[in-house]
Amino acid sequence: MNSIKKQSKIVSNIENLQVLYEDNHIIIINKRSGDIVQGDKTGDTPLSDVVKSYIKKKYNKPGAVYLGVTHRLDRPTTGVVVFTKTSKALTRMNKLFLNKDIEKTYWAIVKNIPNKSKDTLINWLKKNSKNNKSTAYPKQVNQSKKAILHYKVLHSLDRYHLLEVKLETGRHHQIRSQLSFIGSSIKGDLKYGFDRSNPDGSIHLHAQNISFKHPVNEQKISISAPPPPNDVLWVECVSKIDKL
Question: What is the pLDDT at residue 242?
Answer without folding.
Answer: 61
